[in-house]
Design a protein that fits this description.
about 100 residues; about 0% strand; 2 domains; 3 helices; single chain; mainly alpha
Length: about 100
């Protein structure tokens, strides 16, 4: 193709290329039914394996989330504010220790 080609030349070349591609498409052998069935079965197996892997990951994420929630709950319980009775007991112990030092 050169730059001096007219529009009709380029359109003709495009039509020829299109016809050649169509001939090649029509000339290709048909897919055997047995091969097609094998491909479909292999695709289904891959899909099932992918679904099982995704389910396994989902279970792992759920277990990790539950463990994290339990760990957070334990931290919250440890950091919970002391009750009035606990505060009073600590204060009384402090006063008793000061009194015993004298």
């Amino acid at each position: 193709m050169t730059y001096n080609n007219s529009f009709q030349d380029r359109a003709g070349q495009a039509a020829e290329a299109k016809a050649k591609a169509l001939e090649q498409y029509r000339a290709r052998p048909q897919v055997d039914a047995k091969v097609a069935a094998e491909r479909i079965a292999a695709g289904q197996e891959r899909a099932e394996a992918k679904a099982q892997k995704a389910a396994g990951k989902k279970v792992e994420r759920k277990a990790a989330a539950e463990a994290s929630a339990a760990k957070d709950a334990a931290r919250a319980a440890a950091a919970a504010p002391k009750t009035e009775a606990e505060l009073k007991a600590a204060r009384d112990a402090k006063y008793a220790a000061r009194k015993n030092r004298r």
